[in-house]
């Protein structure tokens, strides 16, 4: 991203944001509610156009938006088949492996409208990951997760980086800064590298 600017109805949200994300990196962006984190991610995924500047993702992209892209009437399994077609995959092995890693295999035949919020978020994450993307853009990926799943999420994110994936995690609140390679803070429309404050106790 180079010098990206975005305003909504004349109100600037991003005032010249530049960001590099390389293969194998786990990068975090933290910022207050309304700081523009989702706007930044939506520009990166191509969902939203910047007013000026350049935003480019090279490679296959996996995106986990803040609002889950799920349909209540479909089962977990039906979502996997739907996304399998969308991604043009031959098999669902990786999706099943991810479901297993997130402790969700037991929900495969359950309709989404009957799932808890945390379980829906797990499915949202599996749908973003099941095609083994080279760039992973995650908006508040661990909202609603219990502690065990939260830890599994970070293990998974690090394992993906070790396989060469570039992972960007955006959150209004984050712990465990030490799990990240770089932490940025978005504030007043500007992105700055944040000081690492140890293993806990920092947020927006
Ligand atoms: N389509 C839109 N039209 C007008 N204003 C918008 C639009 N989308 C976002 N905004 C405003 O832009 C600002 C940034 O929103 P954004 O969702 O990017 O913030 P965020 O950092 O992701 O917030 P949160 O942590 O609450 O998810 C907010 O003030 C929001 O109200």
UniProtKB/TrEMBL annotation:
Entry keywords, A to Z: ATP-binding, Nucleotide-binding
* Source lineage: Bacteria, Bacillati, Actinomycetota, Actinomycetes, Kitasatosporales
The record's section on InterPro entries has:
AAA+_ATPase, ABC_transporter-like_ATP-bd, P-loop_NTPase
Query: What's the short name of a Pfam family annotated to this entry?
Result: ABC_tran
Boundaries of every ABC transporter domain copy: 1-204
Q: Which domain of life is it from?
A: Bacteria
The protein's name in its UniProt record: ABC transporter
Q: Name one GO molecular function term.
A: ATP hydrolysis activity
């Amino acid at each position: 991203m180079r010098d990206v600017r975005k305003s909504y109805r004349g109100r600037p949200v991003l005032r010249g944001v530049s960001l590099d994300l390389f293969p194998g990196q786990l990068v975090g962006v933290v910022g207050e509610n309304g700081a523009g984190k989702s706007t930044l991610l939506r520009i990166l995924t191509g969902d939203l156009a910047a007013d000026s500047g350049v935003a480019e993702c090279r490679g296959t992209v996996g995106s986990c938006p803040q609002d889950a892209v799920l349909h209540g009437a479909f089962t977990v399994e039906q979502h996997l088949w739907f996304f399998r077609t969308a991604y043009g995959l031959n098999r669902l092995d990786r999706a099943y492996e991810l479901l297993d890693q997130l402790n969700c295999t037991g929900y495969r035949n359950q309709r989404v409208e009957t799932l808890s919020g945390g379980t829906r978020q797990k499915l949202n994450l599996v749908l973003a990951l099941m095609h083994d993307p080279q760039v992973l853009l995650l908006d508040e990926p661990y909202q609603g997760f219990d502690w065990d799943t939260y830890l599994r999420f970070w293990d998974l994110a690090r394992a993906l980086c070790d396989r060469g994936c570039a992972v960007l995690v955006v959150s209004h609140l984050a712990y465990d800064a030490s799990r990240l390679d770089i932490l940025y803070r978005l504030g007043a429309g500007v992105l700055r590298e944040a000081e690492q404050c140890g293993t806990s106790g920092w947020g927006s």
